[in-house]
Design a protein that fits this description.
This protein has 127 residues and is mainly beta. It is built from one helix and nine strands; from the N terminus they run βββββββαββ. The strands form three sheets. Strands 6-3-8-9 form a four-stranded antiparallel sheet, with no helix packed on it. Strands 1-2-7 form a three-stranded antiparallel sheet. A two-stranded antiparallel sheet has the order 4-5.
């Protein structure tokens, strides 16, 4: 079993993934250290899944107590075409906070501009 340092610094980011016309938030711990108490706050309400789910209010963003080393969690936002048709926010500011095993706090602010995905084409399902 791996032993983690109580002084090491895990690094957590929240990225946006555009894949085959779908949009996702991806929570990533890209280090070999455990990240604890990961919290993500959005500056705007994000509504997705065909306008039926408030993505920014999902528990994953406010109750992620353990994020394993090198782990990523994808959170489906919506089909890009639908998200932009409903005039979803394009410029976002995310505040990400987490702790290491020694309970030291870390944070970062991440800015995303989803409008870069507006005019991107994609291949549909090909059989």
């Amino acid at each position: 079993m791996a032993k983690y340092s109580s002084t090491a610094q895990p690094e957590v980011i929240v990225d946006v993934l555009f894949e085959k016309g779908l949009l996702y938030f991806v929570i990533i711990n890209y280090t070999d250290e455990v990240a604890r108490n990961v919290r993500v706050k959005f500056d705007k309400k994000i509504v997705g899944v065909q306008g039926r789910v408030i993505i920014s209010d999902l528990n994953i963003f406010d109750a992620l107590d353990f994020l394993a080393p090198r782990k990523e969690i994808r959170v489906f936002i919506d089909v890009a075409q639908g998200y932009f048709a409903r005039k979803g926010p394009e410029k976002l500011k995310l505040s990400v906070e987490w702790r290491n095993e020694g309970r030291k706090r870390f944070s970062r602010t991440i800015y995303h501009n989803l409008s870069i995905y507006k005019d991107m084409g994609y291949l549909g399902n090909i059989e």
